Every structure is written in structure tokens, then in C-alpha cells.
């Protein structure tokens, strides 16, 4: 069934809640990646069905960065307006508000034990939430965690896009789209580009390529599970590089590599679900 929540700034979000027949107090909350949504990736449903079979609830949420461009209902002072956000216009720090709304909703539903799972950019957002509110969580699952800044800087026109973004923002045109796209395919506004890819951005949670210590990740002391595909087609670095980074930053984290799996575990959804379920059951 579709569930709806409202964030502290009035944004309405949708999600799907999978529930066992018997009342349980444990739930896994899933946060999708860049321009994704709560239903797109096949592994989402496979994980939900697997967890329910093990007596664990599962909630797949939308955040305000879902799809390239999306219209949201926003309620302010009793009035409902429409606001256009989506990945093109989002600000990374607002993702914390989205997760707060879902955690509060689930707690009010009687789920006292919450494990937060983030996929791709959702893993970045999960860490940003966890470093501030880890007392509300029992564990953290980071699936296909990306080096956002490292990947953006590897593009040949990164400096050109950065200069264009700065000029547009200085001219008060934060919402104007850049001529170039990020990661080959993603349109992005000037304001969002600066928000995500400036030095010191909150999105720089996993500096895997340079091997630098992650100050944000080091603040999270929760039980943690890092999982990624052997054949991830979105990264230039390999599983060995990811493993070395997390061993340095989170030496107690459990890690797993899914053989043959790509960034979204296509064709290997059941192996992914098995690993996630195994972690959740021991947290």
C-alpha cells in the first residue's frame, strides 16, 4: 500500500510499506539513488519480499530528489501549493528532512527498531542522516556507495561546468540548467551542481578515489553493512578500492561483494537480498 508523509518544510513524499502478517517492531527503510524512486529498481521488491518472509518490515521511500524533475505538493500554513524539485533542483542537505519524516512516521507506526538502507546517492543521504540522528537507528546499510565528487571531477568538462554554474548562481539564476550534463546523462541546475560538487560539499561522503579519510563517515558509530557489485558499471574504481576505503574509515563494518552484479544488482537481486537480510537479522 502507498503511504504518504509530510516533511518539516511541508513537502509530501510517497512510499511503499511491506508488512508481515504478525505485528513486528523492526523495519528497514530504503532511500533511493540519484533521480531514482521507490519502485524503479528490481532489487527493492525482492528485498521487501525477502524481509517480510523473515518477519521484518520494509519501507521503500521517495525523497525529494526522485526522478529528474518532479512536482511536489507542499503544505504551508494550511495552504497547499505545488513545488518543482526532483534531482535537477534538489539540495543535498534537504534529504535529511526527508528521512526524518519517514523515520518519525515509522516510529509512530510502532517500529522501534529502524535500519536505514541507502543505494548509490541514497547511501550518501543515509550517512548525512545517521551522523546527526544515529540514536534513532539500529543499523546502516550502504549499497553501491559512490564517490560523488571524485566521479564528477573525472569528467573532462568538470571545470567548464563549475565556471558556468558559478556565473549563473552569481547572476541569480540558480535554477537554470547547465549546458553540460553530469555522469554523461543527468541534467542539473547551476545551484544543484554547486551544492553537490563544490569542495567541502556535504555530498562528499565517500572520497574513495583519493583515499582521503571521510570526516562525515567517521562520525557514524552504528553497526554498518557495505555492499556493492563486482561489476559495478557506474564507477571507475574496483571492489578492492572500495574495500580498502571502508576498511580505513569503518574498520568494524561488514562488507560483501555480489559476484557478477552491476550498480543496481540486475539479475543478482536475490543474492543482494540474501546479504541484506543476513545483516539485518544480526543487528
Describe the structure.
The mean pLDDT is 96. Helix 1 crosses helix 9 (269-282), helix 2 crosses helix 3 (121-133) and helix 5 (158-170) crosses helix 6. The radius of gyration is 18 Å and the shape is globular. The longest helix is centred in the middle third of the chain and has 15 residues, at 94-108. With 283 residues, the chain is of the alpha/beta class. The protein is 34% helix and 20% strand. It has helices at 42-53, 94-108, 121-133, 148-153, 158-170, 190-197, 215-218, 239-249, 269-282, and strands at 2-6, 12-18, 26-31, 57-61, 71-76, 79-84, 113-119, 139-143, 224-229, 254-258. It has 2 domains: 2-147 and 211-282, Rossmann fold; 148-205, no CATH class. It is built from 9 helices and 10 strands. The strands form 2 sheets. The chain has an 8-stranded mixed beta sheet, with helices on both faces. 47% of the residues are buried.
Order of helices and strands: EEEHEEEHEHEHHHHEHEH
At CATH level 3, the topology of the largest domain is Rossmann fold
Give the helix/strand class.
Answer: alpha/beta
Amount of helix = 25-40%
The helix count comes to 9
Question: How many β-strand runs?
Answer: 10
CATH class of the largest domain: Alpha Beta
The CATH architecture name of the largest domain reads 3-Layer(aba) Sandwich
In percent terms, what proportion of residues is strand?
Answer: 15-25%
So what's the overall shape? globular
Can you tell me the CATH superfamily of the largest domain?
A: Alpha/Beta hydrolase fold, catalytic domain
Radius of gyration, CA atoms, in whole angstroms: 18 Å
Major sheet strand order: 1-2-4-3-7-8-9-10
Low-confidence stretches: none
Largest sheet: 8 strands, mixed
Question: What count of structural domains?
Answer: 2
Mean pLDDT: 96
The span between the termini is: 27 Å
Amino acid at each position: 500500500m502507498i503511504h504518504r508523509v509530510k516533511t518539516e518544510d511541508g513537502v509530501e513524499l510517497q512510499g511503499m510499506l511491506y508488512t508481515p502478517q504478525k505485528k513486528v517492531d523492526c523495519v528497514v527503510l530504503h532511500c533511493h539513488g540519484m533521480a531514482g524512486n521507490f519502485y524503479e529498481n528490481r532489487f527493492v521488491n525482492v528485498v521487501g519480499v525477502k524481509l517480510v518472509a523473515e518477519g521484518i518490515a520494509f519501507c521503500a521511500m521517495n525523497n525529494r530528489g526522485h526522478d529528474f524533475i518532479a512536482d511536489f505538493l507542499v503544505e504551508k500554513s494550511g495552504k497547499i501549493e505545488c513545488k518543482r524539485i526532483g534531482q535537477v533542483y534538489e539540495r543535498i542537505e534537504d534529504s535529511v528532512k526527508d528521512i526524518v519524516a519517514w523515520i518519525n512516521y515509522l516510529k509512530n507506526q510502532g517500529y522501534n527498531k529502524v535500519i536505514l538502507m541507502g543505494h548509490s546517492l541514497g547511501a550518501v543521504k543515509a550517512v548525512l542522516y545517521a551522523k546527526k540522528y544515529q540514536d534513532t537507528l539500529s543499523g546502516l546499510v550502504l549499497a553501491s556507495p559512490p564517490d560523488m565528487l571524485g566521479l564528477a571531477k573525472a569528467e573532462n568538462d568538470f571545470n567548464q561546468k563549475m565556471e558556468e554554474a558559478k556565473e549563473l548562481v552569481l547572476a541569480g539564476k540558480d535554477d537554470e540548467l547547465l549546458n553540460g550534463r553530469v555522469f554523461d546523462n543527468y541534467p542539473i541546475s547551476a545551484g544543484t551542481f554547486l551544492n553537490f560538487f563544490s569542495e567541502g560539499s556535504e555530498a562528499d561522503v565517500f572520497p574513495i578515489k583519493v583515499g582521503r579519510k571521510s570526516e562525515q563517515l567517521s562520525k557514524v558509530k552504528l553497526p554498518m553493512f557495505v555492499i556493492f557489485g563486482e561489476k559495478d558499471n557506474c564507477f571507475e574504481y574496483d571492489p578492492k578500492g572500495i574495500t580498502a576505503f571502508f576498511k580505513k574509515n569503518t574498520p568494524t563494518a561488514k562488507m560483501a561483494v555480489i559476484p557478477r552484479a552491476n550498480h543496481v544488482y540486475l539479475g543478482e537481486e536475490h543474492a543482494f537480498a540474501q546479504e541484506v537480510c543476513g545483516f539485518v537479522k544480526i543487528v
